[in-house]
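Example record

The entry below shows one chain as it appears in the dataset: sequence first, then structure tokens.
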Amino acid sequence: MALELSQPSNNDDLLNCIKQHCQFDFSGYAPAFIERQLQRLAQRLAAGDSAALLAWLQAKPGDRSRQLRDAITVNVSSLFRDPSFFLSLRRQLLPQLAQRGRLDIWVAGCARGEEVYSLAIVLAELDLLAHSRIIATDLSHQALAQASSGRLCGLIASAEQQRYQQAGGRGQLKAYFEHRNGQLYCRPQLLAAVQFVQHGLPQALLAEPVALLICRNVLIYFGPALKQRAIGLFEASLMEGGFLCLGDTEAVCGLMGPTWLELETLGLFQRRPEL
């Protein structure tokens, strides 16, 4: 039997409980996305509807609000997802930005860390990792804990190796990982330049602007107003001439103002230098 979670008042109460106990507001997220994520959690908990899910939450609101917050966020990623993006980083963006000196990069919505690991590998192969600082953020405490541990979900199979090669890699992807207790971990030297921080968009984060901001496949879960706020944060967080990398399915048409120059590569924008 399908679960019935389309009770707005109960859903609003669930989100208000998260806001109260976790200081994060999901009200700007796309309603269909929130509905889908709540339904998945209800299925895992065998809760029949949103009223039952709310009762579960209110029994232990502190701990369970954090659990619900993490359940709503999407933490699926993979190594070198969209190889053409990483090829553009390797051949164009990173060498260009490196001419300015130290590379400051923000990866927003880093999930379990695969995108950060992929970025660090490209930087290492360009001999830029030692001159880079990566700030990797995510709202989910659980996902961030895994990302910061360096532990990889699953194995490195032929598909991962193929994507790495399509992204310009010439060696063996597995060389950047090591076995510990039967699991694969990213080698510590790759993560030495990475700072993992719990953070949810569009809250302010950075004291100094970065040269490169990567936020792929996050805005697709936002409503229009929240997307606009996030883009405003990106503008404030990028230095003049810095680059913003969004996912190629992000619907930002009409939201990018005159500050932004849209480049030929899909999902890539540059903050225009002020004249």
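Notes for this example: The first helix runs from residue 8 to 22. Residues 156 and 174 are 7 Å apart (CA to CA).
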